[in-house]
Amino acid sequence: MALKHATPLLDELEKGPWPSFVADIKRMAAKSAMCEDLLGQLELSYEEKEGHWKHGGIVGVFGYGGGVIGRYSDRPDLFPKVAHFHTLRVNQPASKFYSTEILRKLCDLWEARGSGLTNMHGSTGDIILLGTTTDQLEPIFYELTHQLGMDLGGSGSNLRTPSCCIGKARCEWSCLNTQDITYDLTMTYQDELHRPMFPYKFKFKTSGCPNDCVAAIARADCSIIGTWRDKIRIDQDAVRAYVGGELVPNGGAHGTENRALDIQEEVIRKCPTRCMQWDGKTLKIRDEECTRCMHCINVMPRALKPGEDTGATILVGAKAPILEGAQMSSVVIPFMKMEPPYEEFKSFVEKMWDWWMENGKNRERLGELIQRLGMKAFLKATELQPDPRMINTPRYNPYIFYDPADVPGGWEHDAEGYRKRHQA
Length: 424
Description:
This is Dissimilatory-type sulfite reductase subunit alpha. One of its GO terms (biological process) is sulfate assimilation. Residues 281-309 form the 4Fe-4S ferredoxin-type domain. It is an enzyme of class 1 (oxidoreductase). By secondary structure, the protein is of the alpha+beta class. It contains 15 helices and 17 strands. Strands 7-8-9-14-15 form a 5-stranded mixed sheet. The protein has a 4-stranded antiparallel sheet with strand order 2-4-6-5. A hairpin with a 6-residue loop joins strand 5 and strand 6 (127-130). Helix 4 (100-113) runs antiparallel to helix 5 (137-146).
């Protein structure tokens, strides 16, 4: 089927070995006039090097302040089918577990009432339904809630849709019930999720272990990272089997060949705190120095496991580069038991939100406020005690400063002593 708009610039994006969003839109354009005009407007944007979407005011569903992102074309004369092209964010199930029945119903709904284009998923985690008109918003919302049992996610200056990794459902390393935490936070904070009341957006992300498969530490205003506070469990027979070539390192990932593991080079020397020793028969770990980086466990998954006294490390302040540049999370609670109904965690969250709402500027993320007023002010507001593990840059720049005079021999002496103690 020939398209009514010529798209020579967009056609270039279909060339090469990688999948193209242009090809996806063209497939939908065969049965959606909205997608045809979308291609035409996008081509015009490439030609003129200027976006042609405008903000035409707040649009949404009754009773909700978020969940719908209004989008209007500034050239409805050329592309009338995208005069309105609103996006809906739909709250995804925890860990993104779907039945095929729900997915089919969702796609049928969107093809009937929208463009048919979806994004599974946005960076926060939501199901993104791309492109519909204002008159369809209420019918779509009704069908989502009453027929599919789903709800809109967060958008605007509110709590964004909480998200999490696969957790204990399929991962043996998970130290947390990530699905239960995410569901509990979602249900507890409905007002904060649907009615913008914050200085800017706020994201919870939960990872079951320090591998952090949802990249919470880089993206979430509040990261919940599963960890443990007792000793790493060691199967010494399995360690010897890795060294002897009987077990494949890294779980066979990325085509790892069946070979003997060089434990000194691949594990011991790569430990960030050098807290491990191998004498040829027994692996020893000084757990009090372990930073829970997971490297040794990932290399030897049959030999090492997280401890059994599990909980979470709570970090705050990450964001992508928008106004002040990217920020990584900072540790504020090194260990917290995360057990239903999570009252200790929620108490911390509400103190944090109160401080942010009182002191935050418009469009200022939590991490930017901490950067502006200082970690000391944040800790005072949330009633947390300073701790050397509350760090800005791991193993480099602590918030808690020490006088060099308090270290025997000064910093250089101490650093040299560290090197001697931990040299191979």
